[in-house]
Please model this.
Amino acid sequence: MDTITHGLIGYTLYKSVKKEDMPVSMQRGLLVTALIGSQIPDIDVVVKFTEIGQVMEQMWHRGLTHSVFLVPFWALLIFGLVVWLFKVKDRRIFYTALTAVFVHDTIDLFNAWGTGYLEPFSSTRITIGSIPIVDGVFWVVFITGLLITRYKKSLAAHVVFRWVAIVMLAHVGLQTAQGLWLEHQVKKEYEQAELAATFVPGQFQVIGKKGEKVDIYHGSIFTSLTKKISLVSKEKSDLTPLLKKNPRAHVLIKWSPFVVIVDDSKRLGIFDPRFYKNGQSFLSEYINKN
Model:
Protein backbone atom coordinates (compact mmCIF):
# COMPACT_ATOMS: atom_id res chain seq x y z
CA MET A 1 0.00 0.00 0.00
CA ASP A 2 1.01 3.63 -0.31
CA THR A 3 2.50 5.53 2.63
CA ILE A 4 -0.67 7.48 3.41
CA THR A 5 -2.88 4.39 3.55
CA HIS A 6 -0.42 2.62 5.84
CA GLY A 7 -0.51 5.70 8.07
CA LEU A 8 -4.31 5.72 8.14
CA ILE A 9 -4.35 2.06 9.11
CA GLY A 10 -1.84 2.76 11.87
CA TYR A 11 -3.93 5.65 13.17
CA THR A 12 -7.03 3.44 13.06
CA LEU A 13 -5.20 0.94 15.25
CA TYR A 14 -4.35 3.72 17.72
CA LYS A 15 -7.92 5.06 17.80
CA SER A 16 -9.25 1.53 18.38
CA VAL A 17 -7.60 1.39 21.80
CA LYS A 18 -9.69 2.50 24.77
CA LYS A 19 -7.72 5.36 26.32
CA GLU A 20 -9.98 6.70 29.08
CA ASP A 21 -7.96 7.25 32.27
CA MET A 22 -4.76 6.55 30.34
CA PRO A 23 -1.85 8.92 31.16
CA VAL A 24 -1.02 11.45 28.44
CA SER A 25 2.49 10.05 28.09
CA MET A 26 1.05 6.60 27.47
CA GLN A 27 -1.39 7.94 24.87
CA ARG A 28 1.42 9.71 23.05
CA GLY A 29 3.55 6.60 23.22
CA LEU A 30 0.76 4.51 21.71
CA LEU A 31 0.26 7.01 18.89
CA VAL A 32 3.95 7.05 18.00
CA THR A 33 4.05 3.26 18.26
CA ALA A 34 1.11 2.76 15.89
CA LEU A 35 2.39 5.27 13.34
CA ILE A 36 5.99 4.02 13.31
CA GLY A 37 4.88 0.40 13.28
CA SER A 38 2.64 1.06 10.29
CA GLN A 39 5.59 2.49 8.32
CA ILE A 40 8.83 0.90 9.49
CA PRO A 41 8.94 -2.08 7.07
CA ASP A 42 9.26 0.45 4.24
CA ILE A 43 12.60 1.59 5.65
CA ASP A 44 14.10 -0.50 2.84
CA VAL A 45 13.63 2.46 0.47
CA VAL A 46 17.04 3.69 1.63
CA VAL A 47 18.63 1.08 -0.66
CA LYS A 48 17.83 3.37 -3.59
CA PHE A 49 20.72 5.58 -2.55
CA THR A 50 23.33 2.87 -3.16
CA GLU A 51 24.56 1.62 -6.51
CA ILE A 52 23.79 -2.03 -5.84
CA GLY A 53 20.49 -0.98 -4.29
CA GLN A 54 19.42 0.65 -7.55
CA VAL A 55 19.98 -2.68 -9.29
CA MET A 56 18.36 -4.83 -6.60
CA GLU A 57 15.56 -2.44 -5.65
CA GLN A 58 12.76 -4.69 -6.90
CA MET A 59 13.99 -7.66 -4.85
CA TRP A 60 14.98 -5.69 -1.77
CA HIS A 61 11.96 -3.39 -1.57
CA ARG A 62 9.30 -5.27 0.37
CA GLY A 63 11.84 -8.02 0.83
CA LEU A 64 13.43 -8.98 4.14
CA THR A 65 12.05 -5.93 5.98
CA HIS A 66 8.54 -7.22 5.19
CA SER A 67 9.24 -10.74 6.44
CA VAL A 68 6.76 -12.02 8.99
CA PHE A 69 9.72 -13.43 10.91
CA LEU A 70 11.07 -9.91 11.50
CA VAL A 71 7.83 -8.62 13.03
CA PRO A 72 8.97 -9.29 16.65
CA PHE A 73 12.30 -7.57 15.94
CA TRP A 74 10.62 -4.40 14.68
CA ALA A 75 8.17 -4.49 17.60
CA LEU A 76 10.99 -4.72 20.15
CA LEU A 77 12.86 -1.91 18.42
CA ILE A 78 9.82 0.37 18.52
CA PHE A 79 9.06 -0.63 22.11
CA GLY A 80 12.57 0.33 23.18
CA LEU A 81 12.35 3.67 21.35
CA VAL A 82 9.00 4.56 22.93
CA VAL A 83 10.16 3.56 26.42
CA TRP A 84 13.18 5.82 25.97
CA LEU A 85 11.22 8.77 24.54
CA PHE A 86 8.13 8.74 26.76
CA LYS A 87 9.37 6.93 29.86
CA VAL A 88 6.44 4.51 29.74
CA LYS A 89 6.89 0.77 30.03
CA ASP A 90 3.68 -1.02 29.22
CA ARG A 91 3.16 -4.31 27.38
CA ARG A 92 0.41 -2.64 25.34
CA ILE A 93 3.14 -0.64 23.60
CA PHE A 94 4.81 -3.83 22.44
CA TYR A 95 1.56 -5.50 21.36
CA THR A 96 0.49 -2.40 19.44
CA ALA A 97 3.85 -2.33 17.65
CA LEU A 98 3.57 -6.05 16.92
CA THR A 99 0.09 -5.61 15.46
CA ALA A 100 0.99 -2.52 13.41
CA VAL A 101 4.02 -4.14 11.76
CA PHE A 102 2.18 -7.42 11.16
CA VAL A 103 -0.72 -5.58 9.50
CA HIS A 104 1.70 -3.62 7.27
CA ASP A 105 3.50 -6.75 6.12
CA THR A 106 0.30 -8.69 5.58
CA ILE A 107 -1.75 -6.04 3.75
CA ASP A 108 1.09 -5.62 1.25
CA LEU A 109 0.65 -9.27 0.26
CA PHE A 110 -2.60 -8.29 -1.41
CA ASN A 111 -0.95 -5.88 -3.88
CA ALA A 112 0.42 -7.05 -7.22
CA TRP A 113 3.88 -5.97 -6.02
CA GLY A 114 3.82 -8.56 -3.25
CA THR A 115 6.35 -9.08 -0.46
CA GLY A 116 9.13 -11.39 0.66
CA TYR A 117 6.82 -12.54 3.45
CA LEU A 118 8.79 -15.70 4.23
CA GLU A 119 12.33 -14.37 3.79
CA PRO A 120 15.04 -15.41 4.55
CA PHE A 121 13.70 -18.97 4.41
CA SER A 122 12.10 -18.46 1.01
CA SER A 123 12.95 -15.90 -1.66
CA THR A 124 9.57 -16.36 -3.36
CA ARG A 125 7.70 -13.10 -3.81
CA ILE A 126 4.21 -13.77 -2.48
CA THR A 127 1.53 -11.71 -4.20
CA ILE A 128 -2.25 -12.00 -4.29
CA GLY A 129 -3.04 -8.93 -6.39
CA SER A 130 -6.56 -8.31 -5.09
CA ILE A 131 -5.96 -4.80 -3.70
CA PRO A 132 -4.44 -1.88 -5.66
CA ILE A 133 -1.42 0.00 -4.32
CA VAL A 134 -3.66 3.01 -3.66
CA ASP A 135 -7.15 2.02 -2.55
CA GLY A 136 -9.60 4.86 -1.99
CA VAL A 137 -11.98 2.62 -0.06
CA PHE A 138 -9.63 2.68 2.94
CA TRP A 139 -9.59 6.47 2.82
CA VAL A 140 -13.38 6.76 2.60
CA VAL A 141 -13.93 4.35 5.49
CA PHE A 142 -11.35 6.15 7.63
CA ILE A 143 -12.79 9.62 6.92
CA THR A 144 -16.28 8.32 7.67
CA GLY A 145 -15.04 7.13 11.05
CA LEU A 146 -13.52 10.54 11.77
CA LEU A 147 -16.75 12.33 10.87
CA ILE A 148 -18.82 10.01 13.05
CA THR A 149 -16.60 10.61 16.08
CA ARG A 150 -16.70 14.36 15.44
CA TYR A 151 -20.46 14.73 15.13
CA LYS A 152 -21.66 11.81 17.26
CA LYS A 153 -20.04 12.54 20.59
CA SER A 154 -22.20 9.93 22.28
CA LEU A 155 -20.31 7.18 20.46
CA ALA A 156 -16.99 6.15 21.96
CA ALA A 157 -14.13 6.76 19.51
CA HIS A 158 -12.52 3.39 20.15
CA VAL A 159 -15.78 1.60 19.33
CA VAL A 160 -16.23 3.58 16.10
CA PHE A 161 -12.69 2.84 14.94
CA ARG A 162 -12.97 -0.82 15.78
CA TRP A 163 -15.84 -0.85 13.31
CA VAL A 164 -13.67 1.09 10.87
CA ALA A 165 -11.07 -1.67 11.16
CA ILE A 166 -13.73 -4.35 10.67
CA VAL A 167 -15.05 -2.65 7.52
CA MET A 168 -11.50 -2.34 6.14
CA LEU A 169 -10.92 -6.03 6.81
CA ALA A 170 -14.24 -6.92 5.18
CA HIS A 171 -13.27 -4.88 2.11
CA VAL A 172 -10.02 -6.82 1.76
CA GLY A 173 -11.91 -10.09 2.15
CA LEU A 174 -14.57 -9.23 -0.44
CA GLN A 175 -12.05 -7.92 -2.96
CA THR A 176 -9.89 -11.00 -2.53
CA ALA A 177 -12.76 -13.45 -2.88
CA GLN A 178 -13.91 -11.77 -6.10
CA GLY A 179 -10.42 -11.50 -7.57
CA LEU A 180 -9.42 -15.07 -6.83
CA TRP A 181 -12.65 -16.36 -8.35
CA LEU A 182 -11.90 -14.49 -11.60
CA GLU A 183 -8.30 -15.70 -11.57
CA HIS A 184 -9.54 -19.26 -11.13
CA GLN A 185 -11.68 -18.93 -14.26
CA VAL A 186 -8.69 -17.84 -16.36
CA LYS A 187 -6.37 -20.51 -14.96
CA LYS A 188 -8.45 -23.17 -16.68
CA GLU A 189 -7.22 -22.03 -20.09
CA TYR A 190 -3.63 -20.96 -19.37
CA GLU A 191 -0.42 -22.37 -17.96
CA GLN A 192 -0.06 -19.37 -15.65
CA ALA A 193 -2.45 -16.68 -14.48
CA GLU A 194 -1.97 -13.62 -12.28
CA LEU A 195 -4.39 -11.16 -10.72
CA ALA A 196 -3.98 -7.37 -10.64
CA ALA A 197 -6.64 -5.15 -9.06
CA THR A 198 -7.55 -1.86 -10.72
CA PHE A 199 -8.22 1.36 -8.83
CA VAL A 200 -11.98 0.76 -9.14
CA PRO A 201 -13.36 -1.51 -6.39
CA GLY A 202 -14.51 -4.85 -7.76
CA GLN A 203 -12.73 -4.37 -11.10
CA PHE A 204 -9.73 -6.56 -11.92
CA GLN A 205 -7.21 -7.48 -14.55
CA VAL A 206 -6.31 -11.13 -14.98
CA ILE A 207 -3.26 -11.95 -17.05
CA GLY A 208 -2.96 -15.41 -18.56
CA LYS A 209 0.08 -16.93 -20.26
CA LYS A 210 0.27 -20.06 -22.39
CA GLY A 211 3.42 -20.63 -24.41
CA GLU A 212 4.13 -17.41 -26.29
CA LYS A 213 0.58 -16.11 -25.88
CA VAL A 214 -0.16 -13.57 -23.13
CA ASP A 215 -3.72 -12.27 -22.78
CA ILE A 216 -4.94 -9.52 -20.48
CA TYR A 217 -8.56 -9.64 -19.34
CA HIS A 218 -10.55 -6.96 -17.56
CA GLY A 219 -13.82 -7.21 -15.68
CA SER A 220 -15.65 -8.15 -12.49
CA ILE A 221 -17.77 -10.99 -11.19
CA PHE A 222 -20.84 -9.00 -12.25
CA THR A 223 -19.77 -8.19 -15.82
CA SER A 224 -17.54 -11.23 -16.49
CA LEU A 225 -14.08 -10.94 -18.01
CA THR A 226 -13.38 -9.42 -21.42
CA LYS A 227 -10.13 -9.92 -23.30
CA LYS A 228 -8.63 -6.45 -23.78
CA ILE A 229 -5.09 -7.11 -25.01
CA SER A 230 -3.23 -10.00 -26.60
CA LEU A 231 0.56 -10.01 -26.53
CA VAL A 232 3.21 -12.28 -27.97
CA SER A 233 6.25 -13.22 -25.89
CA LYS A 234 9.31 -14.25 -27.92
CA GLU A 235 10.10 -17.22 -25.71
CA LYS A 236 12.81 -18.59 -28.01
CA SER A 237 14.88 -15.39 -27.95
CA ASP A 238 18.35 -15.48 -26.45
CA LEU A 239 18.34 -13.15 -23.43
CA THR A 240 22.08 -13.48 -22.78
CA PRO A 241 22.97 -10.03 -24.23
CA LEU A 242 20.22 -8.40 -22.17
CA LEU A 243 21.31 -10.07 -18.94
CA LYS A 244 24.96 -9.15 -19.53
CA LYS A 245 24.33 -5.48 -20.30
CA ASN A 246 21.40 -4.85 -17.97
CA PRO A 247 21.66 -6.56 -14.55
CA ARG A 248 18.23 -5.22 -13.58
CA ALA A 249 16.73 -7.56 -16.18
CA HIS A 250 17.91 -10.58 -14.21
CA VAL A 251 16.26 -9.15 -11.10
CA LEU A 252 12.98 -8.54 -12.95
CA ILE A 253 12.90 -12.12 -14.27
CA LYS A 254 13.42 -13.48 -10.77
CA TRP A 255 10.94 -11.06 -9.20
CA SER A 256 8.01 -11.33 -11.62
CA PRO A 257 5.68 -14.36 -11.82
CA PHE A 258 6.32 -14.27 -15.57
CA VAL A 259 7.50 -11.74 -18.15
CA VAL A 260 6.81 -10.91 -21.77
CA ILE A 261 9.92 -11.04 -23.98
CA VAL A 262 10.29 -8.36 -26.66
CA ASP A 263 12.74 -9.05 -29.48
CA ASP A 264 12.53 -6.87 -32.59
CA SER A 265 14.92 -5.09 -34.92
CA LYS A 266 15.52 -2.23 -32.48
CA ARG A 267 15.61 -3.70 -28.99
CA LEU A 268 15.66 -6.75 -26.77
CA GLY A 269 13.85 -6.67 -23.47
CA ILE A 270 11.29 -7.93 -21.00
CA PHE A 271 8.37 -6.48 -19.09
CA ASP A 272 5.89 -7.49 -16.41
CA PRO A 273 2.44 -7.65 -18.06
CA ARG A 274 0.60 -7.05 -14.78
CA PHE A 275 1.56 -3.39 -15.07
CA TYR A 276 0.90 -3.06 -18.81
CA LYS A 277 -1.03 0.06 -19.79
CA ASN A 278 -1.18 2.27 -22.88
CA GLY A 279 1.23 0.09 -24.80
CA GLN A 280 3.91 -0.26 -22.14
CA SER A 281 4.70 -1.52 -18.66
CA PHE A 282 6.42 0.63 -16.07
CA LEU A 283 8.29 -2.49 -14.97
CA SER A 284 10.46 -3.21 -18.00
CA GLU A 285 14.12 -3.60 -18.92
CA TYR A 286 15.55 -3.22 -22.43
CA ILE A 287 18.75 -2.83 -24.40
CA ASN A 288 19.03 -1.27 -27.84
CA LYS A 289 20.39 -3.43 -30.62
CA ASN A 290 21.91 -0.56 -32.57
Observations:
- Residues 240-288 form one domain.
- The beta strands are 192-197, 204-210, 213-220, 224-232, 260-263, 267-271, 276-277, 280-281, 284-288.
- Residues 49-56 have pLDDT under 50 and may be disordered.
- The two ends are 39 Å apart (CA to CA).
